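Problem: given the chain below (190 residues), write out its structure.
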Amino acid sequence: MKTLVLCDRKSADYFEQDLRAWVKEVADRQAHNVTVITLDGDALAPCIGCYGCWVKTPGLCIRDKDPANSLSAQLIQSDATILLSEICFGGYSYDIKSFLDRSIPNILPYFEIVDGEMRHKKRYESYPVMISIGYGDFTSEEAQIFKSLAYRNALNMRPRNHTAFMIQNLGDLDAIKQELSTVLSEEVPA
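Solution.
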């Protein structure tokens, strides 16, 4: 199974720990084909809200001089996508948010009611399991915001499962390693 890990730049050195390598190690143990990509928000052009990805070039952003279309395709072709992001005021980091803004070609511009709430219609038959891992120095309120944001973002793509973990200190790694391993083994069998 394919696991795509999208990381922000700061995840390479969190308290002298490479969180990217840590996540890859957990996924590798589940016999997953793991691709780790460190995103650079400065290398991704911002979404200009033109909706060309919905009407002019369905499924593809018209801004094709950066890796956003390739990254969106990799996301859809994965069985699990892990977003590794510093928690910034309860939200994703600049690097992760820059990509998420450009990933809207993966859904349709039309709406439908799902579980009593309005959602975008799915462009594709299936979407990867979504796992968000937030890290950093955050308050309990920011942790709740992050969990809620990860959940709400995942709802539009309607993956078969989505979850969020938070790492505030290195002591959290062992517990989260076990939980992440369980999610990957149960939801994305090798």
